[in-house]
Each structure stands twice: as C-alpha cells, then as structure tokens.
Automatic annotation (TrEMBL):
<dbReference type="GO" id="GO:0055085">
    <property type="term" value="P:transmembrane transport"/>
</dbReference>
<feature type="signal peptide">
    <location>
        <begin position="1"/>
        <end position="38"/>
    </location>
</feature>
<keyword id="KW-0732">Signal</keyword>
<dbReference type="InterPro" id="IPR006061">
    <property type="entry name" value="SBP_1_CS"/>
</dbReference>
<dbReference type="Pfam" id="PF13416">
    <property type="entry name" value="SBP_bac_8"/>
</dbReference>
<protein>
    <submittedName>
        <fullName>Solute-binding lipoprotein</fullName>
    </submittedName>
</protein>
<comment type="similarity">
    <text>Belongs to the bacterial solute-binding protein 1 family.</text>
</comment>
<dbReference type="InterPro" id="IPR050490">
    <property type="entry name" value="Bact_solute-bd_prot1"/>
</dbReference>
<keyword id="KW-0449">Lipoprotein</keyword>
<keyword id="KW-0813">Transport</keyword>
<dbReference type="InterPro" id="IPR006059">
    <property type="entry name" value="SBP"/>
</dbReference>
Length: 440
C-alpha cells in the first residue's frame, strides 16, 4: 500500500482493534466469498448504523427475491470507518455496500478505495439529485456513492421559550439571534439559546454557513486556511456570545442531559441538519407542539447562504466480491432513487432529490410535533440555499477526532476560537504532510 493510501488510517487504531475486526471477519463480519446461493439468490453485505434499516431491507427483498441483504452494524461514524479501514487493509471481510457520511466518502475515495458508481449507471440518474448532493459524492470529478440523506442546516426553536422571553420575532440575522439569546438568558433558571462544547463537525458546518472555505483539495494537494475573512466572520460572531455566557458550554449533545434540557426549555434552539426532525419526535415529549423550524440566521439581512450538517451516501468499496457489485448497486439505486425513497420519507428522512423538494403534497404536509407547521417548506428552501463550493479534507474523520485538542480548550477559557482554529489547522497540515499529501 502506498503512503497516500494509508492516509485513511485513523491513528487511534490499535493492534487490539485490528485483531477484533479480523476475528469479526472470521465470524462473518463481512462476506466476500461466493456469488449466488443454491436457490439462485445473491447475498450482499451492507454496513450501516441506521436503526431502521430493516424496514428498507424487508421492502426491497419483497420486490427483489433474487437478492438478499445482510446487514452488519460495524459501529457509527469513526467506529465504522476504522473497521472498514481494517478490512480494506486486510483484504478480507470487505462489505459490498457501506453507508458513509459525505465527508467520509471523500476520505475513502481520495485513496482509490471506492468504486466509481458511474460504471454502474449513476450518470443516468445523477441529475435528479440536488447539486449539493452531487457535489458531496464527487471527488476529482467522479462520483463515489449514491446520496440517500442530506443535512441542510436549519434552526429549530422552542416557540414557548421565545414567548416567555419576549422574543417577538424569529431571528433572521445573527445580530437578532444574539438579542434573543440575551432575553432568554434573563429567564429564571439556567436558560440558554443553544449549547456548544466544541464539536468539530458542528464548527465545520457553521463555517460553511458563514461562507468560509477552510479546506481545498486538488488531487493529492490540500490547502488548510483558517485565517480567511469568512472564518473570522463566524468567530467574530460566536466568540462574543461565548464570552458573555449566552451559550451553554457544559452540556454535550446527544446525552441524556441534553435531551432533558431541550425538553424542559433550558436550551431554546438547535442549529443543525434538518434530519434532526425524527430524533426530536422520538426523544422530546414535554415540548411536543412547541417546536418550530426556521432558516438559519444570516450575517446580513436578506442573504440566503447555508451549509450542511450530516447526510451521506451508500458507497461500494473496492476489494469486495466483483460478482456482487451489480446486486449491491441495484439495492443502492433502489434506496436512493427508487421505491426506497418512499420508505425513507415515511421515516422522516430527507432524500436529496429535486423531485422530493418540489413535490407539492410533501411541501404542504403539516407536522403536529411542530405546532402544525408545514416544516418541509422551510427545509426545502434551506436545501436550495446550500452553497456547493465547500470542500472536505480527505482525512476529515481524523480531523474531527482531534478537534477537541484545540477547539475544546476554548470552552475551558484557555484560548479564543480563532486561535484554536488556527491551531487545529496547523495540526491538520502536519498530519497531511506525514501521510504523503502536498500541503499548502
């Protein structure tokens, strides 16, 4: 393996982790042998952490009896990527399909470890996906996955908290957002407009929404720059809010405490991907009917600039069984562009398809959880506002894993956000050079 190919490895992989994966392979962690069973069926292996995946598999197998889909949960996010890296390095146990966040598509494609899906017919349907989705699976001009979910950023807000705090109109600019934060902070108890503990993915999405382009990639040449004006636009807005303690910096997302504070009104907004809808409906009971969805606040009145947080694709790793690739692509296309789209919508998903975003019935659906609001209208507009010039590093999973080393210090009062981002960037430059990239 070339030094550049090894760029995919996350440095926290230990010998024990490798051994664990290889034991899993022996036990059926992935299946790369054989093409069809005695009954003529082809079994493909899919890696994903999606909790509702069985609904898709059941629906697919009813209309495709010649294909069986074996699902393996190899862990979420970086855990799955580590397992996939191990399998690729071992040349064994490689899945036929794998769900990857958009940033991970770039990470695995840059080192030539994913199949070009145009070879299977994606070019015939690619124009049906949003421009942002197409961009998110494209590396060096070629697509390496079928987009199945998207995460245009929106602002979820608790209308009851806004009313109690005297926030008379939904913030449309960041100045208005800060004014609302000050009113919410004056409420009895420990109330904040939002929370932030320095998650690298969140910070990256906020930079995207500010119009920043901290990363650029040209083949094996990467550039990292956290000193441009749009990075400073974000830090110049967010740092004063941190300094004034208008943001809850002690509550980490996806914890029980976080859900509790969202449900008792202690945290009044979430700035995140629109996919959060289904999670809110499952985890928030006391505030059902109180939440609403709005576009992200802008840096200047009248602007329509947005970024993404989350979303991903089904990709086909190289090294899996060649004879199974057609069946694997058939499932992926069914999921992303066929009848699987309806299953996705029924689960509250957001397929990045132009046909969905322009469907009148879908746009007019009202959601009782959000007080009868037609939330899809806001989400569709947010999706169309996503800028398509943002690029991920080809080692973004590693980047997010070390963000806490620098950005995390901001939330302990040890440095400023701007200085921490520059420090993060320096660490990413060093890593890129060590892994064989030309770094500017």
């Amino acid at each position: 393996m070339s030094r550049l190919s090894r760029a995919l490895k996350i440095r926290t992989i230990t010998a024990a982790a490798v051994a664990t994966c290889l034991v899993g392979v022996a036990a059926g962690c992935g299946n790369t042998s054989g093409t069809a069973g005695a009954d003529g069926t082809t079994e493909i292996t899919l890696w994903t952490w999606q909790s509702t995946i069985n609904d898709f598999v059941t629906a697919f197998e009813k209309t495709h009896p010649n294909i069986k889909v074996k699902v393996t949960n190899a862990g979420a996010n970086e855990d799955e990527y580590m397992q996939l890296t191990n399998a690729l390095n071992a040349g064994n146990g490689i899945p036929d399909l794998v769900y990857l966040d958009f940033n991970a598509v770039h990470q695995f494609a840059i080192s030539d470890q994913l199949r070009n899906v145009n070879d299977y017919g994606f070019d015939k349907i690619s124009g049906d996906f949003t421009e942002a989705a197409q961009n998110n699976v494209t590396v060096n001009g070629q697509p390496y996955g079928l987009p199945i979910s998207s995460g245009p950023m929106v602002m979820f807000y608790n209308q009851d908290v806004f009313d109690k705090a005297g926030v008379e109109s939904v913030p449309t600019t960041w100045d208005e957002y800060r004014a609302a934060a000050e009113k919410i902070a004056s409420l009895p108890g420990d109330a904040h407009i939002t929370n932030d503990t320095g998650d690298g993915g969140f910070i990256t999405s906020m930079l995207w929404q500010a119009g920043a382009q901290p990363f650029s990639v040209d083949g094996t040449t990467v550039s990292v720059n956290f000193n441009d004006k749009n990075v400073k636009k974000f830090t110049g807005m967010w740092q004063p809010m941190l300094d004034s303690k208008l943001i809850d910096t002690s509550t980490t997302g996806w914890t029980d405490d976080w859900w509790r504070k969202l449900d008792d009104g202690s945290i009044a907004t979430m700035l995140t991907g629109a996919w959060m809808v289904s999670s809110m409906q499952k985890n928030l009971s006391q505030t059902k009917g109180s939440w609403r969805v709005a576009p992200m606040p802008q840096y200047a009145a009248g602007e329509h600039v947005n970024g993404e947080n989350g979303g991903g694709a089904l990709a086909m790793p190289k090294g899996s069984n060649d004879a199974k690739t057609r069946a694997a692509y058939e499932f992926a296309q069914w999921f992303a562009h066929g009848d699987g789209v309806q299953v996705n919508l029924q689960q509250g998903g957001l397929p990045p398809l132009n046909s969905v975003l322009s469907d009148a019935d879908w746009l007019d659906e009202k959601d009782a959880f959000f007080g009868g609001q037609a939330t899809h209208q806001v989400i569709a507009s947010a999706s169309k506002d996503v800028t398509t010039d943002f690029e991920y590093l080809p080692y973004m999973a590693y980047a997010n894993s070390i963000a806490v080393n620098s950005i995390g210090q901001v939330y302990h009062g040890k440095t400023t956000l701007q200085k921490a981002l520059v420090q993060w960037g320096d660490a990413l430059k060093t890593y890129g050079q060590q892994e064989g990239f030309t770094v500017k």
